[in-house]
Amino acid sequence: MSKEVKDRILELLRESRSFNKSDVLVHIDFSSNQLLFSREFDRFDTANFPLKILKDARKNLKETGVNSLCIAEGYLIQETQTSPILLHPTTIREDKVRKECVVQIIDETPFINPYVVHLLNEKEIDTTDLTVENCFLFLEEAGFELNTSQENCLGNFHHHRYSVLKELEELLESPRFSAPLSRVFGEKITSDEQPFVQLPKDLLFPADVDHENVFELVDKNNLVIQGPPGTGKSQVLTNLIGKLLATNQSTIVLSEKRVALEVIVQKLRDFDLDRLGYIATADSDTHALLQDLQSCWAYFEQVTFEPAVNLRLSEQYEDQLQFSLDILNTPDGVGGISLYDFKKQYSKLDRQNSLFVSSPTSISMYLKNEDVLADIYGRGLHKSIGLLRESTIRGDHFAQLEKALQHWIDSLEMLQKVIHFVTWDDFLALMKKASICQIIENDLYKKYTALYKPNSKQQRKFYKLKKSFSALKTEIEALDKEPSHWHLKPSLEEFQFLQKIHSKRSFQFRVQFKRQWKKYSRLDTSEATNALDRYKRYLDKKRLLSQIITDFCDLGIENPELEIEILSASIQQLGEEKWQLLSEIPLERRAILTENHQLISNLYHEMKSHLNLHSEIELLSTLTRLAKEFGAIVSMHSSLLSLDETSLELLQKIDSFENHKASIFESHWTLFQQRLPSFSKFEIASLKAKATAVISSQKKEAKLFSTHILAQVKTRFSAFHELLNTPARKLTDEQKEQKKRLKKGKSILVKEFAKTRSHPSLHELFNSEAREWIQLLKPIWLSNPVQIAKSFPLKQNLFDTVIFDEASQIPLQNALGSLQRARRAIVAGDSQQMGPTSYFKTGSNEVVDLLHQASFFWPSCSLKHHYRSVHPDLISFSNRHFYNNNLKAYPAFGMVNPIHFHFVSNGCFEERKNEEEAKTVAQFVTNNLDKKSLGIVAFSEEQLQCIWNKFDAPTQLILADRIETGDAFFKALENVQGDECDLLIISFGYARDANENFNMRFGPMNTSNGRRRLNVLLTRARKGLEFFSSVKFNDFKLSENESVNLLRLWFAELERLDSNSTEIQLPFDAKTLIESNKLTLIEPHKYLSKAREFVTFQEVMESRSWVINYD
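The structure corresponding to this sequence follows.
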């Protein structure tokens, strides 16, 4: 266990023990109008009942899921405070017919005030024997003064939060801390402590690129999700829950706001997955949980699932869309420009007379030189400039080319007098003939003329002898290189003598041979036979070689060693084709060609190196034209330097500038079609169909995914029962232990299902054998941190993942126990919204929140697509002043001017309220009660009450009913976080007083958190915002308080926005064509380069009544 982490927890524990003396658990004020004192609590006339108690209790239950209503019994007296001892959880039912409030104690055992227990522990009094039954006697014996005769007290006691103290104390006793808990304090952990989790790609709801980034990061990290208002935070969390369910992982979702949990449950309900989750936030949860478990048990006993295959076609469609966007955005997609830019120009060209070029100039290069090419064609110089090579134009001596041109012309004119030629092809033929004639003028040809004639008898004999000569020479050289045993190689006569005496068998000859053999060889006589045979073969080959040399002499080749290779190469150079051509050249012409061979060769190489000459060009006239136009060409030499070889060649092949351009584009399009045939008929408009295919497939796949999740639970549920029915002899020891637990756990649940009261607590159920069944049927738990501290044992790895929503409102100390219970944590919230408050701290009630702490040590991912507001103006102020203009908002069709400023000129701020403004607001609300959802907010509780008092009775009833059903909210500024509505109505209230003084004291807005309060308020509206005020921008003075200055800027914004602007604001600066609800996005790929972003844009805009097209 890290000492640093332990010390930090201890510090938070000390802070939490700093109790607020105004807390009714610490001190009961018998004069308070927020408490009701009585001997008996049963029925009270509504007129005599303090309804604020009921209102606050309902608010606590609705917003946090915590029932704070209790009856206090008995009091512990100290010098300056009187603390309640026993607390009885209670409910109140308002009977509107009889006009009564009915008080009923919940059927649960009362409990001792947690503050009293803390007081005993602080005085180091052992509380082991302290019980509800003996608590009064125990306290008296401990020396405390008690008052048990005082009337009991009904009020809102926030006793649940003391569970956090107990949890922190228990946490300090833990042998080790979980990975998320260690990491939130910056401790390093190993991969074993937080293993990698491979989540599936499947989705329940559409996800934008930011959501996808979350899914990638959460595989291997604890994660912070920064989710500004309306960015789909609950949607991304629901998708995460689905992915975790698919991997059989348990999840606990925590929020201080019950509404945030209900949003997630509602989203799960869309896929019938809500049955796998449970919101555990009320005191009476155990019975409700058991009913829910029983229903879930019956469902999985009966349900069956048909096998289904999810092909995930949406991934393939999205890949295809991404490929199309990549091609469109590739800068050099076609010929060095993007496909889109290419098509834009290609469609305007007349391509009937275009010419295909296998290696065309890049279009980017062509466009760079387009003006130069137009100038060349305009001057009529294209044929001449097309003759010039790129290297010639770029050469250092370009201007001197004129002299070379004249030399070529003079030389060609001289040649034409003796030899006929017109075209470049003619000149090439001339060059070939001259080369042949030059060959037959050499000495070899004159000496061996007979050998040059193809297939002649002499030529055949020459090649035969050449082959034999080469083979024998190679063999003899190989034999000469072998290790030699000869002292002296014998001559032919000596060899024949040795052979002769070796063949004799008499003793005399053997002695003679031995003596002779030693004279020639180092070998023993036993090896002489083989040596003599090898030497005989060597002499035979030498004799054959000598005969071949003699035959060469008959052909006139006296030195074959030197001559045959030279002669062979010369014969091959002439060849049969050239020999045939030579035979067709008259003798007198041969002489002329031979005489001019060097001139012809020089002209060929010089012109070839400087000019692009094609076969049919009339050589002399073309060069004459080039010489004539050379001066004009030199004058534009600098602009020609950018032309490449292909462009120059096309100049002489194509007669018009238009066809030149068309040829370049058509050639590139042909090559592009060969490379990517699927794009041959591609149109920008087809992107819509590709995106639609993704959207349609994702909806089908989401249903398949949710069914797959339920089918997995069914499979495991059946496997548990199969294990229960399997004989012990067929089970492993581990299976036997599990069977024992499952059997006992099922027995516990079946027994509890049959009961209606006196159930074990949730904490006890989770500590029992029923836990495996509960976690199977309810892998998702939704609650608040305080309730978790009360309901679940503090065990590591109790859950696989903990998700904190609205984490900026969760005090760090409240989250530690839940972090300890999980393997992995996800913290979601918005650092620009309200932070938490503490019931414990005195003085400033601002504390460190979980989001703030985790953001320093965990990877963070921001959500930037805003989906709540259907008009960008509704989020523009917050976007600019809080989110650096990073939020992308999507307009709905037909939504114009969503913000209106109502100036109440006669408003006056007296006794902390503005009566005239309240009257105006009340009338406006009355006229708009039919709106789908309403939010009415005032900057102070006094102004809020003033507005309520201005409603007539019927309006109050209607509005109260809508508030009760969740179709409206009616709150002060500091209480609106987590709420949202279609139409938001705000009353500023503050104004000049009767003396025309505007004091600029705005209650909560003047605190350091005032700017966040303003951000929360201004981001609640989906469709419209109506702001009522009795002051304007000019009434504000510059202030040292930044929150007040921001409020001043909001008034400036109000006056600017309150106009009839009809401009459509897309989340990016794009070209559009708009006709009614038809919106055509021009060049969509430039703004939506990612397929997921493209799909998101189309899906959201279509859901907001737009018909989207692309062009």
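The radius of gyration is 50 Å.
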